[in-house]
Amino acid sequence: MPPARPSSAFSPRRRQLLLGTSASLALGACSHAVTPGPLRPPGLRLIGEATLPHRLRFRETTVGGLSGLDYDPAQDLWVAVSDDPRGARFYTLRLPLSAERLGTPELLDVTRLAAPPQPDAEAIRWRPGAGTLLWSTEGDVRHGTAPSLHESARDGRLLRSFTLPPHFAVDPAGRRGPRHNLGLEGLALTSDGGQAWVAMENALLQDGPEPTVGQPGGPCRFTLFDLASGRALGQRAYIPEPIPQAPRVPGVFADNGVSEVLMLDAGRMLVLERAYAVGMGNTLRLFRVDLASGDDTLAVDTLVPGRFRPLAKTLVADLSAWLGSGLSRLDNTESLAWGPVLPATADRPAQRTLVLLSDDNFNPGQVTQFVAFALTEPL
């Protein structure tokens, strides 16, 4: 991930914002992102938000950098993975959630993940049938470590690492492959639990540029893996939007990219795009994509504009629409997960819940924020 929006704790690129002259602007305005005409769909009802104290100590760890979240309905437990490069780990917690309220998260346990060097864990998914956890990392491109996808036991033992397509390899010359901190950011299990999609935050170097204020970015590759064999089955290309607002001071940092993906049903996916501009703060937009709408790019080494068909996308919601009416701020949100189903009542059918979680980057100017929505109609 890029320097101005520190998504992995203590990354050198990330420190540029915190230590640079623009830091005071960024920290002072991170909760005031405004997008003209924000979309608040009728299908989403904000339940509430909850936060954890900054640098909370729990069982000899500092809670922070929470970059992935998932829910185990059988045990009514949540798992949240930390991207702290000093030690890959996930937390087990309870999240009191009703139709009217999101309560204070309750940490229950922390589990160390056996991992390759420089893991930078960014997403986690619980496999109900197998009782295991899938998790993805951005690696450390500057030190030659490529993004990766792993499966671990509930006790943190590494069970296997998946073989990624060759275009994800790190190029020592820096001409192709993943950009540093812009690797595998999103992870989604298919409805039947037999496959998993992993999503890049931004384009590979050979595929196109990062987004700018006026131009969309190059295509992010979304790759589908078969969980039984571990093989990559297919791939789609997703075009991230232009950066929605310019930074307050011309020429300083701004970015946009994919921060999480989540299956909506068997053929459609939700994609969370998170943008940041120094002095303006974060913008969070939720898109829906039809996975049958794009070409398979798995065998394509370089994605040239006009030679492939990207995924068709539709804006579902702009979270700035809830600012000041139940949502206190927008932050560095990197997680998207389905929560428990709210039981039906005399005046309301059963409703699915959707929970988002932000990564505070161990930065006192940011927050670990849980936000819960109820789906009142299909998205």
From TrEMBL:
It comes from the Bacteria. Pfam families: Phytase-like. Residues 61-362 form the Phytase-like domain. This is Phytase-like domain-containing protein. It comes from Pseudorhodoferax soli.
